């Protein structure tokens, strides 16, 4: 043993290295010395993740936040917004990866941000167009509900959205509405007589709701007037 200089026997067929380990754990007179001789683990070479900083550092950051809000005339709650937090985290990541660098060499020019904003906006619009185009062939019916509670609070609820694969005739739309309200949502079958249905002026929708109380949506009416 390199710690206590004891002579130990090793038999690969009987005990292997277990006797050596038992000596280190229980018989060695210099366990601290033995521990100092061991090889370091890989994990000990790695930095442990930092989840907090000293109070003095937080105080300095608070001062910088005050200066930021003061010089740039920004609201105090801006430092709690997601965009600012994401930016701060990215700057911390840059410092952790590349060391101490001047902020001017990291932050982009305002014109670069303006150009990048247009590029990202164009990409997002293309994604939306592609998504809508993929679903253009699908007919989606949506039921929303607007009601007033006994304490006079207006509630708006999206009840259900469902594809309607059949032809959009009045009879088929009426049958689909009844199935969704009763079978899927669990309403009583007579509930359709208790609703005031507000829709656009599509002839098939109007035909589907002939037996029930129906009103034309004023937004759609105004849109029709303005188009003509």
UniProtKB/TrEMBL annotation:
GO terms for biological process: regulation of transcription by RNA polymerase II. Residues 53-112 form the Hermes trasposase DNA-binding domain. Pfam families: DBD_Tnp_Hermes. One of its GO terms (cellular component) is nucleus. This is Hermes trasposase DNA-binding domain-containing protein. It comes from Lepisosteus oculatus. The lineage of its organism: Eukaryota, Metazoa, Chordata, Craniata, Vertebrata.
